Amino acid sequence: MGEVAVQLKIMPNGPDVDLKGLSSRITSQVAPYGRLYSCEVQPIAFGLKALMLTVIVEDKEGGTEALEASISEINEVESVQAGAVTRML
Known about the structure:
This protein is of the alpha+beta class and about 90 residues long.
């Protein structure tokens, strides 16, 4: 099987969440499912920011569902949304 790059948009509970601390907790959650390629902060509105992660996972059925569920269990995470999925060459 090949690998795919998945972009995840992670919304924190509020604008006062420490995004650096949150990203380190998320990085530890990613390890069992794949590897973190990049993590960026994206401004949304009214001081709220999202974490945009690109994670490399195996190309298999339901490949991101377990990862999304694992990240959403973190207290400071409001939602996790998978965006673009690109096959790695």
